[in-house]
């Protein structure tokens, strides 16, 4: 049976059946007028598993939407499942202090999570309908551009040593002063050699420009991607694991996307397992940075429950939406979703001076990670601690339940447009921004919606890509 026929059968069944399953899980709560979280979690668990299976059956395993859905569970939904199947309670946390949320908050978060998964899946499938029916229509044959390839590789090679040097200086500082030095703003105050200025911005732009060339050589793609991944790993050694893990998984999907290659489910599982081990290792190393000791590392590392503990620890992201649902967030001035755009602009006009953690900067930066932590513990927030971002929390903060529905639709639309590149190659100059968004979309569940909106990278990439046709025009005019 063709994918199109499969989808025509599965889609109406999903649209009608999944809400019924979730509503059935609500019956004990409705009947007894008391919240039964286990029943609701079971309903959500069934809906989530069906969504993942549906996605794999129709879109394959090497798919940005699938990766986003899986990592959403990794960072949030797993806390529900651990509460159901293991001896955990997602309403209770010990970081940074012990606190317990109300049952109503947990109930509401599960309902929001269901709405997020359900609405986004429906619209992702709907917006992908043309691709399902005519997959050959969106092949990238003939997209290869030799000039983009050469310029991208040249930029990356030229800035490999500067970016590696800068990363080494940062790693050395973090090892001496602790992981939270990253978030206290210490790295901005370090003295770097002048020739390392902007190196990571330019290096990253080079990789996105290289991808926009749609390289023909698989070997060249693998080699350049490994170079990019190596530099990303240097940054991950400071404790920032999300970017390198997103990059590793994105590179796999880019490979399938550019070369129309088939990725086996076993291969994806191996890579995910490797990512898990890498994350555990990095987290274990991070304990020893700064005031941590080698003994602390060994004590945690020797535990037989390290994998389970690590997996549950990653679901601290759930604290962000739960705090926004249950509490008034201090110093919150405008919707969190716009902070990655507004804060850099304010820095540009010198309205913000100094690291983010100073009280006077909170209202301007409006950072979701720090303000949620500040609401829980001012002392920990001033040390640089935070819960990270969460797009689900941003969507709810923007417009409540309607905000979750609307932004789920928008995110599904953007993902389909970018992943299938429904844009003429005449507009190749915006391809680097698209590839950057796709890479960041993998870890979006724990990040900000506009986290990809890295203004310096966007500006540099666009300038280079706009200069290329201009130089070609000048060259042709001289002939």
Helix-strand makeup class: mainly alpha
- Calculate Rg over CA atoms: 23 Å
Please give the share of residues in helix: over 70%
Elements, N to C (H/E)? HHHEEHHHHHHHHHHHHHHHHHHHH
Write up this protein.
The chain has 479 residues and is mainly α. Helix content is 71%, strand content 1%. It is built from 23 helices and two strands. The protein has helices at 3-32, 37-59, 64-85, 103-127, 129-133, 146-158, 160-177, 181-184, 186-189, 199-212, 218-236, 241-259, 265-287, 294-301, 306-313, 319-326, 339-348, 359-365, 368-376, 378-383, 391-419, 431-441, 455-478, and strands spanning 92-93, 99-100. The protein has a two-stranded antiparallel ribbon. A hairpin with a 5-residue loop joins strand 1 (92-93) and strand 2. Helix 6 runs antiparallel to helix 10 (199-212) and helix 10 (199-212) packs across helix 22. The chain is globular and about 85 Å long. The N and C termini lie far apart (56 Å). Mean pLDDT is 84; it is low at 293-302.
Descriptors:
two-stranded antiparallel sheet, mainly alpha, globular, 479 residues
Q: Short description, anyone?
A:
The protein is mainly alpha-helical. It contains 23 helices and two strands. The chain is globular, with a radius of gyration of 23 Å.
Topology:
Blueprint: H1 3-32, H2 37-59, H3 64-85, E1 92-93, E2 99-100, H4 103-127, H5 129-133, H6 146-158, H7 160-177, H8 181-184, H9 186-189, H10 199-212, H11 218-236, H12 241-259, H13 265-287, H14 294-301, H15 306-313, H16 319-326, H17 339-348, H18 359-365, H19 368-376, H20 378-383, H21 391-419, H22 431-441, H23 455-478
Helix pairs in contact: 1-2, 1-4, 2-3, 2-4, 3-4, 4-16, 4-21, 6-10, 7-11, 10-11, 10-22, 10-23, 11-12, 12-13, 12-22, 13-14, 16-19, 16-21
């Amino acid at each position: 049976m063709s994918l199109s026929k499969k989808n025509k059968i599965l889609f109406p069944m999903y649209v009608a059946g999944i809400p019924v399953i979730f509503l059935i899980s609500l019956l004990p709560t409705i009947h007894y007028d008391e919240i039964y979280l286990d029943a609701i979690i079971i309903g959500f668990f069934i809906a989530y598993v069906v969504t993942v299976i549906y996605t794999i059956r129709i879109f394959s395993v090497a798919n940005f939407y699938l990766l986003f859905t899986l990592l959403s569970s990794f960072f949030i939904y797993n806390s529900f499942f651990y509460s159901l199947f293991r001896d955990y309670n997602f309403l209770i946390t010990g970081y940074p202090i012990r606190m317990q949320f109300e049952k109503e908050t947990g109930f509401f978060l599960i309902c929001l999570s269901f709405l997020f998964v359900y609405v986004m899946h429906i619209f992702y499938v709907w917006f992908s309908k043309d691709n399902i029916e005519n997959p050959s229509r969106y092949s990238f044959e003939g997209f290869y551009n030799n000039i983009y390839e050469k310029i991208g590789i040249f930029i990356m090679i030229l800035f490999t040593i500067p970016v590696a040097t800068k990363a080494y200086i940062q790693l050395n500082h973090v090892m001496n002063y602790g992981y939270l030095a990253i978030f206290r703003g210490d790295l901005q105050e370090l003295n770097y050699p002048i020739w390392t200025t902007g190196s990571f911005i330019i290096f990253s732009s080079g990789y996105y420009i290289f991808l926009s060339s749609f390289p023909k050589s698989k070997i060249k793609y693998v080699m350049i991607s490994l170079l990019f991944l190596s530099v990303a790993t240097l940054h991950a050694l400071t404790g920032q694991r999300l970017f390198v893990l997103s990059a590793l998984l994105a590179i796999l999907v880019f490979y399938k996307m550019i070369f129309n290659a088939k990725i086996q489910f076993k291969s994806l599982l191996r890579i995910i397992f490797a990512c898990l081990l890498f994350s555990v290792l990095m987290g274990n190393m991070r304990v020893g940075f700064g005031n941590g000791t080698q003994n602390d590392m060994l004590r945690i590392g020797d535990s037989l429950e390290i994998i389970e503990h690590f997996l549950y620890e990653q679901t601290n992201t759930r604290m962000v939406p739960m705090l926004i649902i249950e509490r008034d967030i201090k110093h919150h001035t405008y919707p969190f979703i716009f902070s990655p755009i507004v804060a850099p602009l304010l820095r540009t006009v010198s309205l913000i001076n100094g690291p983010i953690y100073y009280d006077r900067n909170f209202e301007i930066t409006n950072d979701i990670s720090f303000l949620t932590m500040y609401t829980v513990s001012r002392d920990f927030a001033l040390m640089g601690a935070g819960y990270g971002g969460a797009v689900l929390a941003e969507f709810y903060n923007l417009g409540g339940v309607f905000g979750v529905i609307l932004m789920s639709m928008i995110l599904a639309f953007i993902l389909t447009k970018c992943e299938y590149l429904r844009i003429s190659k005449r507009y190749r100059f915006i391809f680097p921004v698209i590839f950057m968004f796709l890479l960041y979309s993998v870890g979006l569940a724990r990040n900000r919606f506009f986290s990809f909106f890295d203004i310096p990278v966007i500006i540099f990439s666009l300038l280079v890509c706009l200069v290329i046709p201009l130089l070609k025009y000048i060259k042709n005019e001289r002939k």
